[in-house]
Design a protein that fits this description.
Layout lengths: L10 E7 L4 E6 L4 E5 H6 L4 H4 L17 E7 L3 E6 L8 E2 H9 L1 H15 L21
Antiparallel strand pairs: 1-2, 2-3, 4-5, 5-6
Length: 139
């Protein structure tokens, strides 16, 4: 799995804030991040969002009000959230969560650029998924 770096900070605490829709993660190096659920959903590391290679990313829209309905541990290295829109295939390693938190502003800017380039609004409903038949089985 990408992003499991030796010596990377590990979380000391993880708190789901349902009202403000953020995941608060405090790391062993003293950093604490409040990662919005929407950012997590938009940048989910799943193949459904990231695709199976460069250029296959699927722009996510309509995720502003997404919530977490479950947050399951994955071994000692990650968590797997289930979002209110049913998405549950992303596994967020500790260092991926750290990167999301550390780069939040840049990621929001990149997301805004991608939306503008596609000519869609952040709150637009997602387009229906095309039938792919690629055999992944995960979507």
């Amino acid at each position: 799995m990408a992003g499991l770096k030796a010596g990377a900070p590990a979380p000391q605490s993880i708190t789901v804030h349902e009202q403000s829709r953020v995941l608060e993660v405090a790391f062993t190096d003293g950093a604490t991040f409040r990662i919005p659920f929407e950012l997590m959903r938009v940048y989910s590391p799943s193949a459904e969002v990231q695709g199976h290679g460069p250029g296959q990313e699927v722009l996510q829209t309509g995720k502003r009000d997404v919530t977490l309905v479950d947050l399951a541990p994955v071994g000692n290295y990650a968590v797997q959230p289930t979002f209110s829109d049913g998405h549950d295939s992303g596994i967020f390693s500790w260092d991926y969560l750290y990167e999301l938190g550390r780069n939040e502003q840049a990621l929001w800017a990149e997301y805004a650029e991608r939306l503008a380039a596609a000519g869609v609004d952040r709150d637009a409903p997602m387009a229906p998924k095309p039938a792919s038949g690629h055999g992944c089985g995960g979507h």
